[in-house]
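>> received
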Amino acid sequence: MQKEVFALKRVFLIVLDSFGIGQMPDSEKFGDVGINTLRACAATGKLNIPNMIAAGLGNIDGVDCLPRTESGAYARLTEKSMGKDTTIGHWEIAGIVSDDPLPTYPDGFPEEILAPFRAETGCGVLANAPWSGTEVIEKYGAEHMRTGDLIVYTSADSVFQIAAHEDIVPPETLYEYCRIARKLLQGKHGVGRVIARPFVGQPGSFKRTANRHDFSLEPPKTTLLDAVKAAGMASIGVGKIHDIFAGQGLTEYVYNKSNADGMTHALHYAKQDFTGLCFVNLVDFDMQFGHRRDAVGYANALNEFDAWLPGFLAEMGEDDLVMITADHGCDPAYTATTDHTREYVPLLVLGKQVKNVNLGTRASFADIAATTAQLLGVELDTPGESFAGEIL
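>> returned
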């Protein structure tokens, strides 16, 4: 049966990075038990998000910590991919289901990676283990400054991180070392991101700078971004989107310095006249509050987003649509680890043509890609199932 054609003008996808809403059936296999990012924020007593509640957040399957309303178009999304990281989550939102997790290195990187890395960079390697980014530079920063050896470390995520003092290794040189690592880290060692982590200061007072740069694995298949760009439409990335997709499928992009900065960028694009997609990532939820297990900070960040939302929606035209979702969880009250948590994520759909509907529990984040492609009238091969006909 031929799909109905909608051809809306603009779709805004806004990812509240790590805003999970509860444990999935397979969460224990990922080491996560009793997790719920939303509930942790609600339990602080600080959460004040009337606009998302009005959009149906409290109505979503399994959500029992917020008031219910009679309005909203909403769903609970299941992560079908075998992971709980930023890259795999965003790739699934954009239409790619990853059957295998990206590689992680809880015991550090093997010599088959490090030997060619040392040979091509001409630098030694320090650390080579999972570390906190601030702790690893305090531990090895002085030795790095003395020897010029690079601080190489990882985390629970699929990342190869290189820290270097800007006076010892200028950022552009560090970026070149990251490009070497990115070239080496393919196939079975294809980590999601190689990350440059420059820092400054003296022993005892080192500080990471804003010159971080991510070098991402290229998506293995055509994404929603590619499809929108190929159709001659605008495909705009805000925040980490450019890095997550290795720049593929974008016609324009801008980085964020903070959630507030990202919301300013999103509002800027809402006021522009374009046809296509604007894909926004707000990372502070994850980076500043989830990983740091700061539930009050997380709740306040949600409050700030919620207060910003009405002004953003006021810029939406008759043929515009907004989807608010997340890429994984990072429960700020979960003390077993400081890692991401394997959770369902919410979906809120807003727009002048959107009707009130419970879209239930969906089988994949990729349903967003299938729906967005249909709404914009572009072709995309994805395992996701469109719900366009249910919301308009």
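>> Residues 239 and 255 are 4 Å apart (CA to CA).
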